[in-house]
Amino acid sequence: MADYNTNTIRAGQTAGIRSSAQIDAGLRAHMNKVYGTMSVGMVITALAAWAISGLAVAADGTLTGLGMAIYASPLKWLIMFAPLIMVFGFGMVANRMSAAAAQLYFYGFATLMGLSISSIFLVFTGLSIVQTFLITAIAFAGLSLWGYTTKKDISGWGSFLIMGVIGLIVASIVNIFLGSPAIMFAVSIIGVLLFSALTAYDTQRIKTDYIQHAQSMDSEWLAKSAIMGALNLYLDFINLFMFLLSFLGNRE
Fold first, then answer.
1. Closest CA to 168 of 131, 197, 194, 203
2. pTM summary value
3. Calpha distance 36→250 (Å, rounded)
4. Pair 132, 175: CB distance under 8 Å
5. Contact 124, 250 (CB under 8 A)
6. Any idea where the domains of the chain sit in the sequence?
7. How many CB atoms lie within 10 A of CB 119?
8. Residues 87-129: pLDDT tens digits?
């Protein structure tokens, strides 16, 4: 009887170790998928922004017909707010989408975001854009790594950060009409702080969601969860980059 109990305990311990190892391996694969999807989205955005800005400016430095339509007509407002609309739309329809459709949606969104921010190539020097991108990438990697490895539970930051982002959006929209440099400066500082915190928060949330659903998840849920995680981190990176560019970018 004693041997039977001992063998049962050992079998249970072995199964627990095996299950834990499987979860760890699955988590690494899941995070690789998240970062990989996000990286592809970033490449699409960068290429779209660069290509569109090139088509928008003629050889003599004046705006082409496309450039006038994008940057100097009422269409610019639609282009400016379309990515925000797509983000909210994605949240509403993601559960009804297949993983393949969700991924195409994300890549379409990344292309539209490239169109929306393409004006940075007309406003800032190429060197300052590259430098700011590298600084953002280093900061993002450090913040995301901290969010992944920290033992501190930062889930309580969520409601505060969401309220901060909503306030930031409202302030940015208001300042479009006011054009106040002081408000823009304050918005940029708060934006850098908010999206730095969101990078760590979203990374930990992606990790926690996976672990909580590790025993019951299916492949479709896993694929869509990785895409949603990639979208969140993509938005954190883009916003952090744009706010840092307002500080560090050298204007043409």
1. 194
2. 0.87
3. 30
4. no
5. yes
6. 29-248
7. 19
8. 888 877 877 888 889 999 999 999 999 999 999 998 899 899 9
Mean pLDDT, the chain, as a whole number? 85
CB-based burial, 134-152: b 16+ in 10 Å, e otherwise: eebeebbeebbeebeeeee
Distance (Å, rounded) from C-alpha 47 to C-alpha 250?
Answer: 21
User: Tokens at residue 25, please?
Assistant: 């391996």
Say which range, 118-127, 177-186, 195-204, 236-245, has the weakest mean pLDDT.
177-186
- How many C-beta atoms lie closer than 10 Å to residue 231's C-beta? 25
State the burial class of residue 7 (Cβ atoms within 10 Å of its Cβ: 0-12, 13-18, 19+): exposed
Per-residue model confidence as pLDDT tens digits over 228-247? 999 999 999 999 999 999 88
Phi (first) and psi of residue 57, to 5 degrees: -120, 130
As given in the structure block, the two tokens for residue 183 are: 């408000």
Residue 16: pLDDT band with limits 50, 70, 90: very low
Indicate the length of the chain as a whole number: 252
Q: What is the DSSP letter of 63?
A: B
| Residue with token string 């989408």 | 97
In whole angstroms, give the CA distance from residue 152 to residue 60. 56
> What is the token pair recorded at 176?
């479009």
Side chain identity at residue 93, one-letter code: V
Residue 62 DSSP code: S
Q: Is the pLDDT of residue 11 over 70?
A: no
